[in-house]
Amino acid sequence: MIKKKIYYVFLSFFFVFTLVSCHKNQKDAELALLSAYLEKHNITEDPTADGLYVINTGFSTTVSLKSDFPKKGDTVIIIYKAYLLSDTSIVFDEKTINNPAHYVYLIDKVIPGWEEAVGLMKKDAPALIIMPSDLAYKGNQTGIIPPFSTLIFEARITDIKKP
After folding, report:
1. Which residues of 52-149 form beta strands (DSSP E)?
2. SS3 at position 144
3. Residue 35: how many CB atoms within 10 A of its CB?
4. Comparing C-alpha atoms, which of 111, 115, 104, 117 is closest to residue 76?
5. What's this model's pTM, rounded to 2 decimal places?
6. Which of 36, 104, 142, 155 has its CA 20 to 30 Å from the CA of residue 110?
């Protein structure tokens, strides 16, 4: 009986160790891919404390110096194209000017990186968002998004409606 318990404890330890090692290898691969992408595209901006990159991608004459960032409870209307860093030819989601996304900032449930990114954006200022898996879907497979996937969004808030 004791040998059986020791066997199950050993087997459990081995399984957990294997799982942790596998996740570490996947996370290391994600970080290497991100580093290569940043270097290839000459991105020198620092990420936020959470590892999120929100990069202003251009000057728009429609951005007013008085433009606000969204505040809790504002309805944000946003257009974007979303890619996998591992294969930027795969667009896994897109919202266009004719069919934008609408959500209530800091009220509706979205992935943490999206909340953080939108909070750093102003109306009509296009941005490139590079979101590590820790701020997206982590180690979970979500639709066509593999575990430990860094996501890239080309995004622009088209309107912010106050409650």
Report:
1. 53-56, 75-84, 87-95, 101-104, 127-131
2. coil
3. 10
4. 104
5. 0.79
6. 36
Domains (range + CATH), the chain: 47-161 (3.10.50.40)
Where does residue 87 fall: left (phi above 0), alpha (psi -120 to 50 degrees), or beta otherwise? beta
- Measured CA to CA, the distance from residue 46 to residue 49 in angstroms comes to 9
pLDDT tens column, 6-17: 644 443 444 434
- Rounded-to-integer distance, Cα 118 and Cα 135, Å: 13
Q: Look at residues 99, 97, 119 and name the one whose alpha carbon lies nearest to residue 107.
A: 119
What's phi and psi for 24, nearest 5 deg?
-65, -45
